[in-house]
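User: I need a structural model of TerB family tellurite resistance protein from Roseateles albus for a docking pre-check later this week. Nothing fancy, just the predicted structure tokens so I can convert them on my end. Input:
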Amino acid sequence: MRNYLVNSPQAAARIIALTVVADGDIADAEIECLDRLAVHEQLGLERLELLALLDTFCEDLLSSGQLNWADVCPVDERTLADLMGEIQDPELRLKVLRLCVELAEVDAQVDDGESAVIVAAVEHWGLHREMFRSSARN
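Assistant: Understood. Predicted structure tokens for TerB family tellurite resistance protein:
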């Protein structure tokens, strides 16, 4: 698995990519959602950079032996913790979490794999209060 600089657009995009592939499929609706939300712009990337990173992430999963669709999440706990550890900026954490939630909900259901990524982000980043705040606003 490649390493990216802490708080880099690539590190953030990789967590987005994990959310996209967590259900075992990259759906057209998810790609459309990436475009509609302009995720690439929000993270400081060009659109093609984001799509290339999605491809690269899938290659990394396949080559590392991480990819196991029998599990809830396509990466193990240690890798998940390492990925989450690359995002340390509180504002970036919130932005990435919100984008992951939007992507997970795009097909009107949150898959177990998508849920696992979101829960891992909340737990690793200590965003429990933030989740309750956003629920109270709705």
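Before docking, keep this in mind: Residues 9-137 form a domain with the TerB-like fold (CATH 1.10.3680).
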